[in-house]
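Hi V.,

You were right to ask for the full record rather than a summary. Here it is.
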Amino acid sequence: MINYSLRYSAHPEDVKSYDTEKLRAHFLIETLFTTDEINIVYSMYDRYIVGGIMPVKSTIKLDTIPYLKSEYFLERRELGVINVGEKGIVSVDGEIFELEKKEALYIGKGAKEILFSSTQKKPALFYINSAPAHSHFPNKKITKENAEIVHLGEEKFANKRIINKLIVNSVVTTCQLQMGLTELLPGNVWNTMPAHTHSRRMEAYFYFDLEEGQTIAHFMGEPQQTRHIFMQNHQAVLSPEWSIHSGSATSSYSFIWGMAGENLDYGDMDICAPNELK
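Predicted structure:
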């Protein structure tokens, strides 16, 4: 079963007037993982798709949805998958990929049958992002051994973190999709600080490995018109091209960032100094 919904894009002038409920309704994705179902949000930000797949008792097939008006899901799209649960299997037109926790898989345009299953008593949790694609590139599994890894931040600023670039153009060839995984070290809580925007790309953040009972404050909005959304474990948030995307939590955590847009330049950022934010 596939549950799907549509999110329209929002003008920054309109977002200035949003209250808590409206802000959450437009940008927060509260439920991604439900037993033996696929949950998908189709966003008008670069027509980006965010979703979650939780196979428990059965193998789940990724079928198309009405918004795509396509014969199959990846007829005109590419897909990124990162497992945030126990070991699982992704079958792509009969080719088998085993994914441990925090391993990724890029699936190119044109793949027709994509199946997801778990191999352990506790399920795999497949977080997926998808973007339009106009060329086919080979499928590729990415582990930490072949990821591009960057260490950033300092303890004194509570932002010491490890960035695992998984589906980026220095690791795997894609049309426009990029994904990676950032791990906050124990005692560190700030991500993407200093904050930035990139008007040539939208982004989505998915938070996980947050301790039970804790919360994340995700910051968004124009640098001088910021807003916040309190989030829980296994929730995602959409970030327009005009918005910062930063956060702080009451414990350490990990998060997955996904992007699509005009270019594949990871360093294409307009930095906002911490003391310039409002």
